[in-house]
Amino acid sequence: MASPVTLIRDMCYPTPHELALASRALADEHPARVRLRQAGTSRAGEPLWVLSVGSPATAGTQAATAGAAAAPNVLVVAGAHANEPVGGATALALARHLIREPHAGTTWHFLLCADPDGAALHRTPRPYSLLDYHRNFFRPPGPEQPEWAPSLLPPDRLPPETLALTRLIDELRPALQISLHGTDLGGSWVQLTRDIPGLAEPFGKSAAELRIPVETSASDASGWPSPGAGIFVMPTPDGVDSVDATDSAHATVIPPEDTRLSTWYHAHRHAGTTAIVEVPMWASDLVDDPAPHPDPRSALRALAARLTSDTARVAALREGAAGGTGPAADALLRAVDWTLALIPGIAAEWTGAGAPAEATAAYIGSIDAFGRRLSLRAAAMLLRVLRAQGHPAAPAVDRLVTGWCEEFAARFQARWVPVATQVEHQSRVVLAAYERLVAAGR
After folding, report:
1. d(C-alpha 98, C-alpha 103), whole Å
2. Tens of pLDDT along 336-378?
3. In the 8-state DSSP scheme, what is residue 136?
């Protein structure tokens, strides 16, 4: 099988507009097998594009209505988080690959960017350092994230991006939904709403070949069943008695009774399975260390104390800032305030009775990265507002963000993973998940 990124060189992260243009070109070049259509509109009026690739008999059709036969569908969601831009590049690479090497009887559908408004606020085509990445950082608060809004908002307040995605799931009834995510620094891992037997082997092989560390104890998936290194199966919501999952990718603690309301679980209404594929921008071998940590509770107390102290510094600077001066500033400040509000509960959880007495070095490393990430993101978004306002506190926040980025990179010995390598790994895992699901007869 040819590499999904064989034809791609000198990759950068594409914008939603660039994705749409490239997809339109594919549809024009392969009209019998490729279709581009609009599935909805964002809050700011931006189109939500879906690219479908299949055989001539299925590419242009929608999923069958209830009771009628339909070819299997796979739905790939890119750009659900504004600060995780690799998904769009992966979606385009996969579409090109499937045009060359189609999967008979299956139609693949790519939601090219689930949050184009967020993508417009976070724009780093090819960051050269963690500081460069954070200079234009944006990640919306949870209620404004398309995949997680249903777990935090009542149905009548859901954003249009979420409604478009759930409509798409109901229309396509995908046997497999793939959500493409990324992390700024760390390793790769996969979260599954149902186990996909055998996925750990190709996942681990790809990571090893591409020198991408595997997060063996991702803080997202603390305590979750793991059928193989870096593969985590979400607990059945009704079978979880307590909240024990600190979600580093989403910067919050997700109650298990709410997880089933996310768009990941929406596919279960149609007997589908969802896989969330994470890949790092900068790699760190510290998240792949299986050695036992000598004193995890002391380490967690120290990490909680640092997070609390760092957050207090950002919060004090936030109190002196003026309100937003436009839609962008308002969005950034909402995200700052939401992030800061989460942190006391997270720090308390790290020092509570449920803190583990035994843990690997990789787990403590993952928690360490998560804590640094939270306070740094809040400070970086605040800095963007203060700079735009010409606020006198901007230089102090700039120094803070610069120092924290340098410390983050040094602590984790960060090494850049080229965009093409990120895309290659993510593409391989997506294809392997599909192949293993088919082999399992689902």
Report:
1. 7
2. 999 999 999 999 999 998 888 999 999 999 999 999 999 999 9
3. T
